[in-house]
């Protein structure tokens, strides 16, 4: 720090950190073993001295984290006022890494496993946001690793025989943190994408960053971000099912119905996000989510009538909600895919066939004394009428629905 703040005097027209006649300055070098070794050895000494005192290690970790985060913030501000904004980069990244590391350690010491995972998920999201704003690949990677550790900590808590299940709040924070992180890193917000419009305030920052470094290329590579997005969406779906089971388990007593309802909630959420902030990958993955929703909806009807006749009163309100979801959410996504040039021939086909199979199933189960004659009759009339109307082009359908 003394070398960085008070460089040595000139010797023969040169200094240790730059050329007298040049407008640029070299990056301040650091001794990695000295920067990271001293605080780690100091914390080891504090652990030995304070391990028998309640909350002493927590306070010590918080103090060390505050010191290094304060020093890192000081050099960030000093770097902005410097002509060469790369000068203090090693110091900034080293001190911020130590500060956030001791902050994560403080959370782990102070809380139990569940709330440690919750705190690390929030801290990981903050690191991803800060790393994206400052284009620091190591900061983003540290945030992703913290969120991965948070998910790993939560997994053993699902063993109902040894521990209580995680609370709804911790699960929600974990899922929302993961989704928010991949939203920040989405391809539309990728600084190295050819079609990305770099804001004016980010151009100078991007020019001063080494965009060819392996970490920077990994963090903002399409395949890496796509993998994180898929994992986050699957985790979000699992968390939604668990929350429904926790709060509505007495009303929705079938796993198939929970999954169907969770898929509908996720599809609505992703549609709202994509409507206001473009997210092409989610738009693409929603094809699979909507197909799973159709399949789960049809399976729900079959399982209900075949195996679960005792819960008719609780089944019908949920089923009506799901059918309305099929009708509205399905059409909204078809419209969204049409205008985003991501529509396929199977979108309208799967939507229509789901409706046809629903009609057939209800004709079969609600008219049991017809010996399946009315099932064939009603479904056949529906298909013939639909085909005739389409062939004669009597249906005034919107352009996004390919009848």
Automatic annotation (TrEMBL):
Keywords: Membrane, Transmembrane, Transmembrane helix. It holds the Pfam family DUF2339. The chain crosses the membrane at residues 26-50, 56-76, 88-107, 138-158, 164-185, 224-243, 255-273, 285-303, 315-334, 346-367, 373-391. It comes from the Bacteria. This is DUF2339 domain-containing protein.
């Amino acid at each position: 720090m003394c070398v960085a703040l008070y460089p040595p005097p000139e010797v023969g027209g040169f200094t240790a950190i730059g050329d007298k006649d040049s407008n640029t300055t070299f990056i301040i070098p650091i001794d990695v073993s000295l920067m990271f070794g001293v605080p780690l050895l100091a914390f080891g000494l504090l652990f030995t001295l304070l391990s028998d005192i309640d909350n002493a290690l927590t306070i010590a970790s918080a103090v060390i984290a505050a010191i290094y985060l304060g020093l890192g913030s000081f050099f960030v501000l000093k770097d902005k006022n410097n002509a060469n904004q790369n000068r203090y980069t090693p110091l900034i990244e080293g001190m911020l890494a130590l500060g956030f590391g001791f902050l994560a350690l403080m959370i782990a010491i102070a809380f139990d496993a569940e709330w440690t995972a919750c705190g690390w998920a929030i801290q990981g999201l903050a690191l991803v946001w800060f790393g994206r704003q400052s284009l620091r690949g190591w900061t983003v990677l540290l945030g992703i690793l913290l969120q991965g550790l948070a998910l790993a900590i939560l997994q053993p808590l699902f063993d109902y025989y040894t521990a209580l299940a995680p609370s709804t709040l911790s699960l929600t924070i974990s899922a929302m943190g993961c989704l928010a992180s991949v939203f920040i890193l989405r391809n539309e917000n990728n600084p190295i994408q050819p079609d990305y419009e770099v804001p004016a305030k980010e151009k100078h920052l991007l020019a001063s960053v080494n965009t060819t470094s392996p970490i920077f290329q990994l963090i903002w590579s399409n395949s890496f971000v796509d993998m994180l997005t898929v994992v986050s969406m699957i985790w979000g779906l699992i968390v939604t099912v668990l929350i429904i089971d926790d709060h509505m388990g007495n009303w929705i007593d079938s796993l198939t119905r929970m999954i169907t309802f969770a898929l509908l909630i996720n599809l609505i959420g992703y549609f709202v996000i994509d409507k206001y902030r473009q997210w092409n990958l989610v738009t693409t993955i929603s094809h699979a989510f909507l197909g799973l929703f159709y399949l789960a909806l049809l399976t729900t009807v079959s399982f209900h009538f075949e195996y679960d006749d005792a819960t008719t009163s609780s089944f019908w309100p949920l089923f009506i909600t799901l059918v309305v979801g099929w009708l509205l959410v399905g059409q909204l996504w078809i419209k969204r895919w049409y205008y985003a040039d991501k529509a396929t021939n199977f979108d309208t086909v799967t939507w229509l066939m789901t409706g046809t199979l629903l009609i057939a199933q209800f004709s079969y189960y609600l008219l049991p004394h017809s010996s399946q004659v009315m099932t064939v009759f009603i479904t056949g009339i529906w298909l013939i009428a639909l085909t005739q109307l389409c062939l004669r082009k009597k249906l005034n359908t919107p352009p996004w629905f390919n009848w």
